[in-house]
Write a structure and sequence with these properties.
There is one protein chain. The protein has about 270 residues and is an alpha/beta fold. The protein has seven helices and 14 strands. Strand 4, helix 1 and strand 5 form a beta-alpha-beta unit. Helix 1 packs parallel to helix 3, helix 4 runs antiparallel to helix 5 and helix 6 crosses helix 7. The structure holds zinc ion. The site of zinc ion has 8 residues, from helix 2.
Length: about 270
């Protein structure tokens, strides 16, 4: 299956990897930014033919392969792509998976200049601890990786996902006033402020629903059944991870307690 290609802004080519799924939507979006001098944002999964296709889509010298985070659907293909393009790979902090040993380390606010544009590193932990977004100036396109998706909501899963840290990142991203969001999965977002508000509201709503359900002691499975009400087993596993992440936040804030192993309830006022 050939990758889907779409020119989403002047000098921004979105290339979607053929790895569709419940977490990846249509597949992972990789971006070629610039024309004669280019940046790659995310290398996609390590899939036969995909990195070759990315390399064949370039129209100039690739000066850097930038990664939003070290999950395999974004970074898996980076070592091979880097060697195909003879381009350096950049990621925030030392790569936890070890697959990117030797990659360059991004710094907050570091800028990459290509053809009158600059692409700036914006730390945005929450989905993963190492996650960064990239803001292109002057048109303020935010390359958001898995922090904000074109459809649905992003998965925050423990131990590396953290709901409080994630909400803080969303607030900081909104303050940047992006004009458009180029997400790691799903279509371009043309109303960033509304979308980010929607994300924050969604998390807060889920939290309220969990707190309401935790009036009586419940297990994670019972919470998923009551709050999410889904029967698809794959989606159910994702919902469990999401509930665990929300519980971790509420436990830390001492608003919920674990009463017996695996059963939780709202903490009685002391
Ligand atoms: Zn992803």
């Amino acid at each position: 299956m050939p990758a889907k290609r779409q020119l989403v802004a002047p000098g921004v080519l979105m290339i979607t990897a053929p790895n569709p799924g419940p977490k990846t939507l249509e597949g992972t979006n990789c971006y070629l930014v610039g024309n004669k001098r280019q940046l790659v944002i995310d290398a996609g999964p390590d899939m036969p033919g995909f990195q070759e296709e990315l390399a064949a889509s370039t129209s100039g010298e690739v000066v850097a392969v930038l990664l939003t985070h070290d999950h395999p659907d974004h970074a898996g293909g980076a070592p091979y792509l880097g060697s195909l393009l003879s381009a350096p790979i950049w990621i925030n902090q030392a790569s936890p998976s070890g697959r990117l040993a030797g990659a360059h380390v991004l710094a907050a606010d570091q800028e990459f200049a290509v053809e009158g544009n600059s692409v700036r590193v914006i730390p945005s932990p929450g989905h993963s601890w190492d996650h960064v977004c990239f803001l292109r100036e002057p048109d303020r396109i935010l390359f958001a990786g898995d922090t904000i998706l074109g459809e649905g909501s992003t998965l925050i899963a423990p131990p590396e996902g953290d709901v409080s840290v994630y909400l803080d990142s969303l607030v900081r991203l909104k303050a940047l006033q992006p004009a458009k969001i180029a997400p790691g999965h799903g279509p371009m977002i043309t109303d960033p402020a509304e979308k980010i508000d929607e994300y924050v509201t969604h998390r807060r709503q889920r939290e309220q629903e969990l707190l309401a359900a935790l009036d009586n002691p419940k297990t994670v499975q019972q919470l998923v059944d009551e709050v999410y009400g889904i029967d698809d087993s794959t989606v159910c596993e994702l919902a469990k991870l999401s509930v665990r992440a929300q519980l971790a936040k509420l436990l830390r804030e001492k608003r919920v307690e674990e009463i017996t192993s695996g059963r939780y309830r709202v903490r009685a006022a002391s």
